[in-house]
What does this fold into?
Amino acid sequence: MNAREIREKTVEEVNNDLLAAEENVKTIHFQLVTAQLDNTSVLNTAKKEVAKLKTVIQEHKLGIHTLVDPGNAVDGEGKK
It folds into this structure.
């Protein structure tokens, strides 16, 4: 998911995605420690996803890029 796609979501959706991504990093890290992970590059990709989500949230807080207002969302998808 790229930053443009993240910015088209509501704040709640981005926060939910962040929680899921952080949980995914924990799961992948656990698999790595227990030698169940074959492709170790997956961990770096998951960490980058968390970083993207945190960056978009911080940009929203600073007013650089605003996320979609849930009150203006159409069909509950977060798109105008």
